[in-house]
Design goal:
380 residues, globular, two-stranded antiparallel sheet, five-stranded parallel sheet, alpha/beta, disordered N terminus
């Protein structure tokens, strides 16, 4: 964390050092003004805002202080952290994560033992009422044996409740933290619960997915940095900008669904031609996330593009929602005639939805705003 020298108090003791703004930190790390403006334009797009909001974002971020972030990991597999650290540079993830004060993170911190816990406590006291708590992993509920999952001799439940007491907000990262995930799956031997089942007096934002998309995590942080408030949420407390459309609606295989062209096995001709994976169990129609547009590993790919059906991992209780490779409306064992009938129904419904989607797309294209870095420079 970069700080600047500060004067002494009247009693002779040094006053708290002034923390660098986000703009100062970016410049210190060699980020050019042009690169910063491109970042602001990307942030506006990521948060589903018009390009005209980019100057406002730039002005806000220039003066914003680096927020303290305390990251707690409970019953999890480290996949959420792995997803975040697999981002490619330079990206929105790097720019944001380089400029927040990540004061505690079980996986990434250098400190261990008492030193690590002292860092968490110090961050809580120094930033009371202003720090963000990020949680990945579910945790045994208050009625479960506290010994099922502990850190530094402290039960997950006690550590969570102590840490969120003076937090500004809580971000539950991954489906385990958001909805209980795998630990909560039947028969749930550890009595696992989601963060929102326990935290009732603070805003809780769920960034679900197994693992979640890195840009969704950083998008929430960007909105908090820019506007001092949290994004609009859906019925499951997920950011609407990222979870407002289904995987099915954004999927590049959707045209094949509309035409009734489905892969029947993972290695048939349809699969090789990239046909729809609906009959192989794809849960895209009932799963809401931005996987199809943001993807992973620098926008390289995502499961459906790699030939695997969507498992619905960003939805509540997806582990207990039935077979991963069973079609949603075509039960196993149906005859060929029934499958053909189901396919025909899919064509009819898909054609209607497809026409509506194309009409909406044309309307959106007419209203679409574009902006260049040069134009942004002139506005600022």
């Amino acid at each position: 964390m970069m700080v600047t020298a500060s004067p002494h108090r009247p009693d002779g003791r040094p006053a708290p050092a002034r923390q660098a703004t986000l703009g100062e930190s970016l410049r210190r790390n060699g980020v050019s003004r042009r690169g910063f403006l491109k970042f602001c334009a990307a942030t506006a797009s990521m948060m589903a805002l018009p390009p005209s909001m980019a100057p406002a974002i730039a002005a806000a971020l220039e003066s914003a202080r680096r927020p303290s972030v305390i990251w707690l990991s409970f019953q999890e597999c480290t996949g959420c952290t792995e997803s975040l650290t697999r981002s490619f540079s330079p990206t929105v993830e790097n720019l944001i994560l380089d400029t927040i004060s990540l004061d505690y993170h079980h996986t990434l911190q250098a400190a261990a033992g008492d030193a690590a816990e002292h860092a968490r406590e110090a961050a809580m006291h120094a930033n009371a009422g202003e720090y963000l708590v990020v949680v990945d992993g579910s945790l045994p509920g208050p009625g479960a044996n506290p010994g099922y999952s502990t850190i530094a001799g402290i039960s997950n439940y006690d550590m969570l409740m102590e840490t969120v007491a003076d937090a500004a907000a809580v971000i539950a990262v991954g489906s385990c933290a958001a909805f209980g995930g795998l630990p909560k799956a039947s028969p749930n031997p550890s009595g696992a619960v989601a963060v929102q089942d326990l935290v009732k007096d603070k805003p809780v934002i769920n960034v679900s997915g197994c693992p979640p998309l890195p840009m969704v995590i950083t998008g929430v942080l960007a909105q908090y940095l820019t506007f001092g408030k949290l994004p609009e949420l859906d019925q499951y407390n997920r950011p609407l900008a990222f979870f407002g459309q289904s995987i099915h609606d954004r999927c590049y295989r959707r045209p094949f669904y509309d035409k009734g062209l489905f892969a029947e096995t993972f290695d048939d001709e349809g699969a090789k031609k990239g046909w729809c994976l609906y009959r192989l169990g794809c849960k895209g129609p009932m799963t809401y996330n931005a996987c199809a547009t943001m993807k992973w590993n620098g926008g390289t790919s995502w499961p459906v593009e790699a030939g695997a059906p969507c498992l619905g991992c960003s939805e509540p209780d997806f582990w207990d929602a039935g077979g991963f490779y069973d079609a949603l409306s075509v039960p196993p064992g149906n005859s060929g005639d029934m499958l053909l009938a189901a396919g025909a129904a899919g064509v009819a419904v898909g054609a209607g939805v497809g026409l509506l989607a194309r009409s909406q797309a044309k309307g959106a294209a007419k209203q679409h705003q574009t902006v260049t870095a040069e134009e942004l420079e002139q506005k600022l």
